[in-house]
Amino acid sequence: MQKEQLEKIGLGPNEIKCYFSLLKIGSSSANEISRHSGIHRVSVYDALRGLREKGLISQVTKENKLLFEAGNPEKILDIVKEREEELKNIKSFIPELISEFKTEKQKQEIYSYKNVAGIKTVLQEMLKSKTEILDFGAEYKVKEFLPYYYKHWDKERVKKQIRMKIVANIRIKPVKIPLTKIKYVPSEFNSSVSTYIFDSKVALIMWVDNPLGVIIEHKEVYESYKNYFEYLWKIAKT
């Protein structure tokens, strides 16, 4: 646990081993530190250099022999304070970055995502929806590709009170899903692409070997897909 915490404030694995060795064995040469820590002598020098720069150790010469000594561990608190100050500085310009991001985002209309991790990003975007989600085409594929994740996603959707309407293939076994209305269309309406319509956006997920996802932010495209969904909903059966 101590090692993990020290890594979080910028110490490398070898630096941590050398520092712990010096705390235990006291003033030592590089060779002695190498033997105690199990780190190659060349790597020990690199680690000691890093520890000196951080102010965690000092070096002294005794009887023409270069020795290294661990400094007071309270110095670690100084490093933590420095990190906190750095974080404060970073936080101060985050609003500016967000503003630039929003400005740039307005210029973009299509966002693409690759592989399973990318598809999860698309699904996460839907959990921000302020409108109900309209879904048709290959609605069963998401459960095949992401069975465990989809269960978690659906629980989050229900928790956020996001409603859904699904136009499903009649081959799909009827199920009851919270906050969801489902209608069915004939098996001829078959597709390997899932379509989700929400928040003036259209998300398309292509369930190929390496799944692809696209989110389109365009008013006319959104209206077109929404109208098509409403047509399907009208002709679909309960």
Say how many strands there are.
9
Number of domains: 2
Give the mean pLDDT: 89
Helix percent reads: 40-55%
* Text of the CATH class of the largest domain: Alpha Beta
The parts where pLDDT drops under 50 for at least 5 residues are none
Report the major sheet.
7 strands, mixed
Strand content: 15-25%
Compressed to H and E, one letter per element, the order equals HHHHEEHEHEHHEEEEEH
Oligomer: single chain
Topology-level CATH name of the largest domain: Endonuclease, Chain A
Based on the coordinates given, report the CATH architecture of the largest domain: 2-Layer Sandwich
Instruction: List the strand order in the largest sheet.
Output: 3-9-8-7-4-5-6
- Derived from helix and strand composition plus strand pairing, the structural class reads alpha+beta
CATH superfamily of the largest domain: Endonuclease Chain A
| Amino- and carboxy-terminal Cα gap | 56 Å
Radius of gyration: 29 Å
> What does the overall shape look like?
elongated
* Number of helices, where a helix is a run of at least 4 consecutive DSSP H or I residues: 9
